[in-house]
Amino acid sequence: MIGWRRVTEDDFPLLGAWLEQPHVARWWNHETTPEAVRRDFGPTARGEEPAQDFLALLDDQPFGLVQRCRLIDYSEYLDELRPVIEVPVGAMSLDYLIGDRGQTGRGLGPAMLTSMVARTWSDHPESDCVIVPVVAANRASWRALEKARFRRAAQGHLTPDNPIDDPLHYVYRLDREV
């Protein structure tokens, strides 16, 4: 059973350590200094951003991060996605990582995604789908989505997180079951 708690400023050293891990750094391409982590995660932790950051917990120990947002709250991101896929008004999006390399390859990614989707349906009853773009080269990420019952709904060019990546993204979608 995966548990969840919101990221707080006390979690920033852990996030910085995870972001430094080669299997995370390859795809997230994020600055890892304490200042950069505070700059980028602080507004969400303090509730100043509409997005939410959650630590995924296994036996009360953090193993992953999920960022969740309503796409309508991020107009630039929404504008980039719209030429690739139709985005309903209530659509949500997720970004995610497993921080400890030793926890990868054990089925935790799909379980984490499935659990967060269930929480999203509960927390956001107005939402009818979750849309997640993934750079096409990140096979582990899009396979986790497929195992969590997301379907590939589109593909197209989007700005990658890491400039070394080709802009081709697969866009996955999971609709709320009625």
UniProtKB/TrEMBL annotation:
Signal peptide: none
Highest taxon listed in the record's lineage: Bacteria
Pathway assigned to this chain's UniProt record: Siderophore biosynthesis; mycobactin biosynthesis
Alphabetical list of Pfam families matching this protein: Acetyltransf_8
Gene3D superfamilies in the cross-refs: 3.40.630.30
Domain Acyltransferase MbtK/IucB-like conserved: 5-53
InterPro entries in UniProt: Acyl_CoA_acyltransferase, Acyltransferase_MbtK/IucB-like
Xref: SUPFAM superfamilies: Acyl-CoA N-acyltransferases (Nat) (SSF55729)
Name of the molecule in the record: Lysine N-acyltransferase MbtK
